[in-house]
C-alpha cells in the first residue's frame, strides 16, 4: 500500500465507504487486507455508516423450535429479529447483510439405517446458482465412519467454505470448482480433549486451540498461502471463569467468549479487557456473524 497519506487519514477515508467497497479493498493488497480487520477502523465504519454488526444467536428447543437473539458488537445498534417467521431455522449469513433461512415443517420424518451409518457419513450437497436462480445437487460429501461436522458456523474465505470435523480435520468446499476435500489441522485428534474452534483471523483461515493444561490461554494458528499452518504469537487469553469458551474472533483484536447465557467481547491485545457483555435468553447453540449497512441489493 504505497501512499503518502498517514494510516489515520486512510482510515478516515475508508470508514466512509460501503461494506461492498471495503470488501473489494481487502483484495487489493496485503496492507489493505490487514487494515480492514483493525478494530479501530471497524468501529469508525459503524459510527460513520450506521452499520449493524454482531452475531445472530440460534437456540433449539424441543428439537425443532428455534429461538433467535442478536448480540451486537461494540458500538453497534441492535437488530430486531421478530420479522422472521415462526419456527425458522437460520442456515447461513454474510458480512454483506444477507441471511439464508428455511421454515421447518411441523411434521417431519427422519429415516436412519444402522447399516448405512456403519459405512460412512453422507451429507447431501446443494448449491444455489445466482445466475440461473436455481438450486443444483452436487456429488454427496462422504466422511469416514464416526466423523461428522461440528456445530459451529463455517468459515468463508476466498470463495471457499471451511468446516471443522469431529476428528479435528477440516472440510473445504470450493465454490468456484464445486469440489470438496479434507485436510489436516495443526492439532491432531487425541484423547486429551484439546478444545478447538475454527475462526477467521485477519482475513485468513485460523484455528484456535486450548489444551487442558493451558491455564485458559488459546493458541491461534493461521493457514498460509503455501498451505502451511503458522502459530501466531500472544494467544487469546480467557477470563478467570472456567465456564467461558472461545466462539469466534470478531476482528484482529476482539475475541468472542460465551459463558452460559452471557455473550462477551474482549480486546485480547489490550490486556484482555471486556468491552461489551450481552445477556441472552439461553445458552447459544449456533452463532452466525452478521454485518449490514442497509444499502439496497438487487439479487434478480
UniProtKB/TrEMBL annotation:
Residues 3-36 form the F-box domain. It holds the Pfam family F-box. InterPro entries: F-box-like_dom_sf (IPR036047), F-box_dom (IPR001810), SCF_F-box_component (IPR050796). PANTHER family: BNACNNG10540D PROTEIN, F-BOX PROTEIN CPR30-LIKE. This is F-box domain-containing protein. It comes from Ambrosia artemisiifolia (Common ragweed).
